[in-house]
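Dissemination and training. As part of the outreach component of the grant, students in the summer workshop were shown how a complex can be specified as a set of sequence lines and then modelled as a single object. The example used during the hands-on session is reproduced here so that future cohorts can follow it. Participants entered these lines:
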Amino acid sequence: MPHRADLWQKLSSALKPQVSADTFNRWFSAVELSEANEDAITFRVPNNIYQFWIESNHMTALQTAVLKALGAPRQIKFVVSNGDGDQAVEAAPAAETAASEIKTGRNAGGLNPRNTFDSFVIGPNNEIAHAASLAVAQTPARTYNPLFIYGGVGLGKTHLMQAIGHFVCAKKKASRVMYLSSEQFINEFIDAIQHNTLVKFRKRYRQADLLLIDDIQFLGGKERSQEEFFHTFNTLFDGHKQIVLSSDRPASEIANLEHRLVSRFEWGLTAELQPPDVETRMAILRKKAKSLQIKLADDVFEFLANRIRTNVRRLEGALMRVASFASLSGKELTQEAIEHLLKDILQEEARNSITIEQIQRRVAEHFDVRLADMTSKRRPANIAFPRQVAMYLARELTKASLNEIGDAFGGRDHGTVLHACKLVKKRMKEQDNIRQTISFIDSSLKR
Amino acid sequence: MKFSASKEKLLEGLQQVQNVVSTRTTLPILSNVLLQADGNEVHLTTTDLDVGVRGSFEASVEKAGATTLPARRLFNIIRELPSSEISVDIDGKNAASIRSGQSYFKILGLPEEEFPPLPKFENAKSVNIPQKALRDGLRKTAYAISTDETRYVLNGVLFSFKDNKLTLVATDGRRLAMLDIELEFPRSHEADIIVPTKAVTELQRLLTDDGNVKVSVGSGQVAFDLNKTLLVSKLIEGNYPNYKQVIPGDAKERVTLERETFLNSLRRVSLLTSDKSNSIKLNFSKNNIDITANTPEVGEAKESLPVQYKGREFSIAFNPEFLMAPLRALGEDEVFLDLIDEMSPGVLKIQTPFLYVLMPMRISS
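and obtained this result:
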C-alpha cells in the first residue's frame, strides 16, 4: 500500500535525528510497517532481537517520531515475521495456535449465551454496575480498568461479566475474550506447575484482550496463585487490556489477599450489586416469564416478588416451578397451591424473617455492649447509639409497628423509635463507616 | 537402611543439593531429599522438577536402602548437632532416627518410590569442558540475564557449541555479555541450548577449579556431570535472539582503564544517583575522564580519572549498575572501553575473547 510506505517514510525521517546513524541502519532499516490504525502501529521485525532491543532502548525515540509524524501518540506493537531465514522464530507460530484455540474454544465455550445485556433487568440496586459494565464493553480498557463488581449470591455478577464478554465478542470477532472463575485459574496454575508448562500458561492468559475472572475471592490465602495473578494483571493492565473481576465482597474484605492486589483491584471502578427491591423483582419475573413464554396472573408475580426477596436465582427457580406446575397439572394457581408448591423455598425465606430479639443480640454483640443495655434506661452515647441502630434495624427488617418496637426496647415511646430511625438514617448518609457497619450487621442477620 | 558418617561429610553433601529444594511447593515430596545408601557412599538427590542435583558423601553403610527426608529440616538438625559422629537409622515406615552424642532426633520421611527420578541421558551428545573455564565464563556473563519473565527466552544463558568453541551469551535487552571458550568437539555435537537461571546459579556453586565437567544435551534437557555431583536441568524452549546483531561495528575511540580504579570511582560517584535519575556521565577529554552524577534536589558528584586518551571530546551516559556489574565480575587488571559516539552502545573488552555491550542513556540537556 502506498499509504503505508508514505507513513514509514515520514516516520523514518522523524526518527533519524533522534538516533545515531549506526543505530538507525542496524535496527530500523530492517523494520517494516505492518499495520497502522488509529490506536496502534504495528512494526514487522525480522526476529525477536529487534523487538527486545528496540523495546528496551529506542522506545522513547520511536514514540517521539510517531508523535511528530502523526501528530498523536499511538500504541506501538511488534510482530516477528515468520519468513524464511535461519532466525525464523518458532515461538511465533506456537503463540498463534494457542491464540486461535482461545478464540474458538473460549468465546463460545465459557460464556452462557443467555447472559447478555438485553436480558439483564436494571433497577436502582444495580444501575451503576450495569452502566459501568456497558461502558467497559463499549470501550474496553479506556474507561474503567479494572472493573470490580461485587455483591451477594444470585444478584447478577456473572450475568454482567458474561454480558461484557458477549458484547465485546460480537463487536470485534478477533478479540480474545477469556472468561473463567478464579478457581479455574488456580487449578490451571497448579496444573502448569506440575507439568512444568508455566510458560504456556502465562502466554495463554497474558495474551487476552479481555480477561473476565469470576469469584476472585477464592484467590484469598493462595499465595502463589496470587503472585501469578498479580503478574498477569500487570501485564494486561500495562498492555491496555481490559480486566473485569467479580467477588462476593469488597476487595478489602477478602481474607488473606495481598495488599498490592487489593489496591490494584480498587484502582479502577468498584461497583456494588445490591438485592433488588420489589419493583425490580417484579420486572425480573416478567422479563423471565416473557423469555420462557410463560403466562401467569399478575397476583402470582406479585406474590413471588413479595415473598422471595434475597436472591434472583431463587426467584427465577420459583417462577419456573410455578410455571411448570401450572402447565403440567393444568390446575388453577391459587395462593394456597403456590404456597404448598414453594413450601421449602418460602420456609427458607421465612427462616430469614428476623425477630427483634435477634437484632438486639446481634447489635449488642457487635458493639460489645450487654444485651440488658438494649432495654435499660441508661443512655450514655456508647449504649444509646447501638440501641438506636437496633431500633432502626428492627424497623427495617421486621414487620413490627413502632409501638411494638418501643415495647421490645424496654417500654419506650413510639416517638423515640421514630427519632432513632431518622437519626440513624441521617448518620448513615453522612458517615461511610456507619453505613458499612450497619449494612454488615444487616447482611449478617439475613444470613 | 542404616549408616553413620562424620558431621562435616554429611553437611557438605547436603549443602551441595539443598539449594534446589524450593520452600513453597505444591508437591510435598519436592521438599524432601532422596537418600540412597550403598557400598561406602550415600547418594543425595533433590529436584524441583526443573532443576535436579545429585551428590554423595562417604559413610559407613551398615544396611543399604533408600528413603526421602525433609531436606531443610534435616540440614538444620545436622548443622546444629554438637558431636562429630552421626548415625542415621531408617525404619520400615521411612522414619529416621538420628543419633549423635547425647542428641536424638526422629523425623518422618516419605517413601522413595514417590520421588520423581532424574531424567536419563542415554546416547546423549556430550562435550567435556574444564570446570575452571566454565565457572569463569558463567561468572563473567550470568549477571546480564534478564529477569523479565515475559521474555522467557532471555531468562537464562545461551550455550552455543559451534566451530570448536563454546559461546556463552546473556542479555536483558539493554546490555549483553558474551564469552568464548575454546574446546574440541565433533561437528555433530554442535548445538544451541538455553540453560535457565536457576540451573546456572546452582552450576556456579558446584563448579570447582579442577577437573572437567561433562555436558550432555538431551531433548529439552541438559546434564552437567562434575564427577561426584550431577546437575540436570530442563532447557528453555525457543530460539535465543540473534545476539550478533547487537554488537556494534568498528569503534572510533578506545580507552584502556585500570579495572579496579575505574570501578571504585564509579561506585563512589554512583552514590549520588537515585532511582529517578539513575545515570552516570563519562566526559572524555585529553588524557582524562570526568565521571559525574547529578541528581536534582540531592546533589552532585565528580571524579577525575587520568587515562591515555587522544580522541575527540565527548560525553556519554550509562546506568552505573550496568557498568559496574561486569567490572565486578571480571578478574583482569585492565579493561578496554570502545565507543563510537554518545548515542551508540559502548563495548567493554579484555584481552581474552569476551565482550560486554551496554546501551548508553540519553543525555538530557
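Chain A touches chain B through 30 residues (CB under 8 Å). Students were then asked to discuss how this feature might be tested experimentally.
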